[in-house]
Amino acid sequence: MTPECTLKVSSPAELIAAVPYLLGFHPADSVTVVAFRGPRVRFAARHDLPGPDQPADELRADADHVAEVVARQGVDGATVIGYGPAARVTPAVTRTAEALRRQGLVVHDELRVTDGRYWSYRCAEPECCPPEGLPCPPQNSAVAAAATYAGQVALPDRAALVDQVGSVAGAERVAMTAATARAQGRLADLMARDLHDAGFARLVRHSGRTAVRAAERCYRSGRRPGDDDVAWLGVLLIHLPVRDYAWERIGTEPWRVAMWTDVLRRVEPQYLLAPACLLGFAAWRAGMGALARVAVDRALLRDPRYPMARLLEDVLDYALDPAAVRGWPRVTDPDDPGGDPRKVRA
Predict the structure, then answer these.
(1) Within a domain: residue 346?
(2) How far lies 82's CA from each of 3, 111, 159, in Å?
(3) Which of 37, 166, 227, 346 to pair with 90, CA 20 to 30 A apart?
């Protein structure tokens, strides 16, 4: 689900050209709802086409949920676009459009995209909507160019988006495995300095905050920290006070998404939960809903009960507007007089 976008479209063809940039990837076998406030695209939501054996009551409940989410965005109309074969797309588009109308929204159009052509379920005039359909706009269309100029990206498919948060492999993985072993030894040395729980917790908290701030300075300047630095950060982030300190500092700067993407990809699998959720939060704040979703999904695949991942899953499921945390972070951080002076409690 994608929050507000400033693209303007004036025809079904232009809307179809815009959808991959609204979602971040070219959809397939799915239903997309593009919602408008006046002439502007306000919101886009995508869900998979249902399976052939899904019960009718579940199908209606899923459509109603999507419609409720769209209606909460303060929109006044929407277009439904189904991607895939007609036999699967037609009932899904019809069901979704009916659910939107039950929410009091105007459905501007109902479209199907199949094999590079599109059809409108709302038009039976062969002059403008021939039975063989119309060709979809090329990838270098004016809308695509405008979206690219505005910094939007459309990956080939959702799998490519998932790959963006996958672990590094090959020599990079070998190096990170070795760096993680060194970081674990470093943590053991830290424990040996103070065997009392309270003393060790203070040492970890101080070391974690130092590591977070060092990583931020590095990524903010466009540099990529070394393996030992990322491994040390990953080991420390399993401690909730360190994770929450990093969480509290996440603003809307683009480098924060790059930072947590890189950390997530490089840490060893047993340390991915915190970086995956921190990336999910950073991407959601930046309006990159699809990236936030795959990051949170990766955390949930590792541990379906991880509280932060489940919280973020709810935020994404209900398409909570990032404006809900406008002003985060905002409180002076006494531990970082020379860095980012903003912080709030989660």
Answers:
(1) no
(2) 20, 6, 19
(3) 37
